[in-house]
Input
Amino acid sequence: MSVGAQTSSGEKSPPRIWVLSELYYPEGSATGYYLTKIAEGLAQERPVSVLCAQPTYSARGTKAPWTEQRNGVAIRRCWGTTLDKDRLAFRTLNLLSISVSVLWRALRAVRRGEPILAVTNPPTLPFVAAMVARVKRSPYVVLVHDVYPDVLVAAGLSRPESLGVRMVGAAHRWLYSHASAVVVLGRDMQALVEGRAVERRGEVVIIPNWADIDTITPAPRSTNPLLKELHLEEKFVVQYSGNMGRTHDLESIVECARRCADEPDIHFLFLGWGAKEPWLRRTVAASHLSNITILPPRPRSEIPVSLNACDLAVISFMPKMAGVSVPSRMYNVMAAGKPIIAVADPESEIARLVREEALGWVVEPQRPDRLLAAVREARADQASRASMGARARCAAETKYSPESVMVKYNRLFDVLAAPQRRSV
Output
């Protein structure tokens, strides 16, 4: 199944792994960051090459070298359009151009039997990996960050009964069924993917994202420079940090803020960007909600400060997102030692994690009344918030460290290099 070069001692070295991702260093977005770290972690034990695009998200406008070697990884950036990703037509052009470019490059560069890892961002890349794997007789692994077509339906971009959704669903059932392994981020996602591909060639393996426990640590709010800059030292700060996309229930948070506008000690802080950001800014301005502050996303170097600039974190999703996506930012919120309100379906990974580890509150989406009740309860009980934050930090250190996650990725590719073994 795999190939490798002969060493001087006559032993076979591990085969080169090819990572296909639109986003990679210097992209600081979640997908770019995690794929960079995964590739660099794998490169500590085997040769790794990456095929990616020029920056199109957080580092859009940056011109990276077309080829470079970084932290043991050989990077080849492929041509593609770099249009505004928040406009659907432009994002589609980006998706198609980079997929064709990566396919062309992979067919020329990948050698027979070399394993391929592709992430579902954009959703066409795993199919590129499958085509190359078929030609090269290589194993391929799908890393699922979003489940298609479900994420399109949840975002309101497609109707569940439409022909396009049915076709995309059938294509992904084939993709999952023929993959050598499918990596998912949580238990809800595992159940959803396993249900789609009943007859599978490979296993559906849970490997979560991780917390940056070394750089992000709990810090006292009394010395937080962002709170001082915003003059929020005396407020009870509720923070939403991250992607403001179509699948995120920002509406409930805004309505919650509207309902407690006469409680001047509560303040809501939004940090991020995405498709819903223009709506958020318009709504806050039109409603004169002085208890909401909106800031652009902070550079990754400032995330330790920004995540500590609150008393309570909210991570919110629209309904029917269970299994479709697992928020990577929750692990860094945990690393910062913050209690969490999960606005999510009860069976989702984040809701289960918050309940199991006793990290905060779970509120169903589109229930601003219950969200407000949880905010008020959190404000009133400082001792409980401190205990929840301590448990969040402990869980981040013991269960979601970078080292523990990379052990699982290396074990997975060890299995692919030794097909006689049955389990990951």
Notes: The chain has a mean pLDDT of 92. DSSP finds 15 helices and 14 strands in the chain. The domain at 17-210+401-417 is CATH 3.40.50.2000 (Rossmann fold).
